[in-house]
Amino acid sequence: MLDRALWVTWYDLPAEGRDAYLSWLHGTYIPKLLKHPGFLWAAHYAWEKGVRSASRLRHVDDSTVPTGNDYILLFGAEEAHAFANPIPGKLHAGLPEEDRKMLSLRRGERANIFIEEARTDGPEIKRREGKMAPSPCIQLGSFNAGSPQSEDELLDWYAHCRMPAMRTLPGCLGVRKLVSVSGWAKHGVLYEFLSLAARNEHFPDHEKPNPEMKAWTDRLVPTLIHAPGSPNVACRIWPPVK
Known about the structure:
This protein is of the alpha+beta class. The protein has a single domain, classed as Alpha-Beta Plaits (2-Layer Sandwich), CATH 3.30.70. The protein has helices at residues 18-33, 88-93, 97-103, 151-166, 196-202, 211-220; strands at 5-12, 39-47, 58-59, 71-77, 107-121, 137-144, 172-182, 187-193, 225-226, 232-238. An eight-stranded antiparallel barrel has the order 1-4-2-10-6-8-7-5. A hairpin with a 4-residue loop joins strand 7 and strand 8. The longest helix is centred in the first third of the chain and has 16 residues, at 18-33. The radius of gyration is 18 Å and the shape is globular.
């Protein structure tokens, strides 16, 4: 059984009601949804705002794209259609009034349903807490290609540059390249790390020993158009890190 589909939700919360919301999300909402057929796991992350993305990145300039980022909720499933029985909007509409009241606290909510294009394990894969448990620290990018012509190069770059580099990166459990079934971003990428410290130590300069690959990255990455705040570096707040 493999978790080839992800439902990702980015959002903010007001200070008032935040603690009650988090208690409800972790104790009621997530356990309830995990009873749905095909749902395999869930994880909730808090965005590490102090970790800044590279200045070369472009972000969408469109007021219709929601800008929430403080929290990131992930559900993993066998396939994308697990999230279609019912689709998220209908699922939420059918919840009891108290649950819908809690959901209404979300601000700037943005969501994608992704399927896995490819994955590769990092050197720390054996240190995963469970067979499918997501890591204590993630970096999650969500973006669109700058033009139709760059889609092939993006495929080439992930297959022959970025993902091979993650196979030997200290502190990395693995990386998944994602494509979208629904949501603003067509592309996603989920990096998993043992900790925020491991990510900060090893990931930012991992291409320095390979100038050719770094040059390729420096040429391609600025052509992408990221969602607000992407890529998000975030640490897991549920389930608690062991």
